[in-house]
Sequence to fold (882 residues):
Amino acid sequence: MQRFANLLDNLANTQSRKRKLALLADYLLNTMDPDRGWTLAALTDGLPISLPLRRILHDLLSDTVDAELYRLSRDYVGDTAETVSLLWPERQSEGDEPPTISALVVAFKTTPKERIPDLLARALDRLDISGRFALLKLLGGAPRVGVSARLAKTALAQAFNHEVSDIEEVWHAVDPPYHDLFAWLTGKGDKPDPGNRPTFRPMMLAHPIQDEDWPRLEPNDLTAEWKWDGIRVQIAATACEMRLFSRTGDDISKAFPEIASAFIRHHCVLDGELLVVRNAEVAPFNDLQQRLNRKTVSPRQLREFPAHVRVYDLLFEDGEDLRPLPFEERRARLEAWHARNSPPLTDLSQTVAFTDFAELSQIWSGTRKDGIEGLMLKRKSSPYLAGRPKGHWWKWKRAPLTLDCVLMYAQRGSGKRSSYYSDYTFGVWIDDSSASADTSEPQLVPVGKAYSGFTDEDLLKLDRFVRNNTIERFGPVRSVAPKLVFEVAFDDVQISSRHKSGVAMRFPRIARIRWDKPANEADTMSAVRALL
Amino acid sequence: MQTSPKSPQSSKAHPAGRWLYPRPEGLFCEPGGFYVDPNKPVDKAVITHGHADHARRGHGAVLATPETIAIMKLRYGEDCAGVFQHIDYGQTVSVNGVNIRIVPAGHILGSAQVVLEHNATRVVVSGDYKRVFDPTCEPFELVPCDVFVTEATFALPVFRHEPAVKEARRLIESVRQQPERTHMLGVYGLGKCQRMIALLRQAGFEETIHLHGALVELTQFYEQRGFTMGSWRPIGKDSSGQRQDYAGQLVMCPPSAISDRWSRRFPDPATAFASGWMRVRGRARQYGVELPLIVSDHADWPELIATIKETGAEEVWVTHGREDALVHQLGLMGIPARALALVGFDDEGE
Ligand SMILES: [Zn+2]
Ligand SMILES: [Zn+2]
Fold:
């Protein structure tokens, strides 16, 4: 347990992805089975333990800690697990070996409910502060140490010299503590066989199209499709089970039960875009967001934000691997398959006909419909390949919108950027009478935040500008004199009640720093509204 | 949770409160006509120790230990008070029927508890204090008393400091394991800095330590007082005007410099902060440090409670920090306690 606790501490204290990867890889390589498997489970799928931790802790502490002191402590610390780890009386005695993570997991899995509080108390007695913290985080679900399931899998690949896609491919064929997985990775066993279980197949991703790509492309070799603005998903269905995977191989089936039931008795793997579709219209991305990152879903959400999958590709049909076939053939198989089966809540992503790039370019620039992010170009002869292979698929995002905004606040970055003011909030001038009636001074209203789109050299200059033009400081934030104009690029702007301006930008980034432009010539709120 | 009886509000305040009580300027001894650690310039002040929130400039007369006076002069200039009067540990002076005795507080070099006796009542004003061993100052001396005036900087049961040498060893291990990085240790300039150097030496770290300019004078002062700090060097450009490469080195600086522009000169710095606040993860995150070292010059919760018990005080007055929790706890123990609500103290950088 101490090794796991140290790992959590070290992961929590470093901001650098590279260092987190190194810490994890080192741990996974040098820790015994099944300890490393349970740790991996804790950082990815979660442990197969569920208990009413809050209530148990409340009961346990009531004998030893005064209620008021607990309240003051919890308020200060801000986290229940940490508060308990600090308040728990030190009872560890010499020679008391702290339990291993495996011993604890097995004990919590097998102990009857009524004896769990006692088990927990004894376990906490045998651990030190960081051990207690680690145990409570383990039992309470995801330990938030800035490690995504994806990062954990990447570390696993790094530790054992495999591709992440290899790991993803077998991931859903193995269960914690992943004996088969580690046996395979250490060369002591075969690659785990998914058997009848639906597993994730690493997705094929596109490159953004660049100017220099065009001369090398032939219109006849390519199929064009709309690029829909949802999230890429993979549907993997076998006779007995269906799973919905995100692009990174996370199982998100539970959040979308209606999609799962649409695929009962199908046997296939499909690639598509998950959307919210109402009356055959794709809803804004914000609507889809209401359904994401949930463990369960309410009937109201099902009603108000109906999910839908727009299908791009067919990877497996009745167990037959279609991935080696050219896209053109897969597309024909897909169309035939969908015509035959047409599962509810799905439709086919339509291809876009064109004869030359001039025509396609017109289509591309003429489209600003909800739900469309741009065009995809796919080589007709390309097989379905894992990752982001060069020369097969391109995404042609529609031109971003831009606005000239004024820098209002700057905040210190984190990690490497912690000595720089690198996160910028910018605004536009209020120009409608209602808001500025009571003041003759022109006023700015914040419309977005960006921390990318500039070089390290720009960052130095921006940092200096912020420090030299500070009006007020609030902790890590400074308000800045309204002098500097950013040309801000963003994909879309939507109505939002969460923002003071009433609008929210999607993916804003700084396209250009307009050192030359006077702030009073920046854009206004009506210019923003015109884009809605 | 266990619900506690209401803390016994002392309906009858201790008689010492008639001659020693808080005023806007700080804790005031009426018959003696002096303040202890006042937050504004006053005629007569007794200063417990040299930290900026306790020792301020501009008083008419200052009574303090020789070390505290030297520190004040070092920080504020020779004429930062009208008159200085030295008082050594164990010595007593009388002012208008009030006996003032000074004993070590174990907080930093020169830190003192002020023992006041008047009308056959003894009050100990402890200033800032700690009980654990510190190679850079005299250890805390326990004085039984009627009223104990205590700080409460870390008065929450979650604060339990780690053994300081153990924390120093963690830092040394990190330096040794990452020779490509510069370790930057944030420390409070007076006391913590020199204590950490001493602890590192004690744990076998013999390499040269690089000091931020703000730490140099005070470290020299400790050396003049006979404390050995080993090999150290101020940071700056060397004679050729070239910047040195600090990879694999240990740099010490004020906590604020960790995330300041100053830090950019070091390759891929690994940041550490030695402070009692590092006990809580949120605080470590707030400072953005990779290696939080839980070392403090203040008493932690168990030390506060134990010390109060050992003094045998009938009543406890709390000067600054988490008064709410401490007063509540003392209520549970049946010891009348009250918060003096003194302002101007700040142990944030501790
Ligand atoms: Zn102090
Ligand atoms: Zn203080």
Remarks:
- Residues 164-177 of chain B form the longest helix (14 residues).
- Chain B has seven helices and 19 strands.
- The first strand of chain B starts at residue 20 and ends at 23.
- The CA atoms of residues 12 and 336 of chain B lie 10 Å apart.
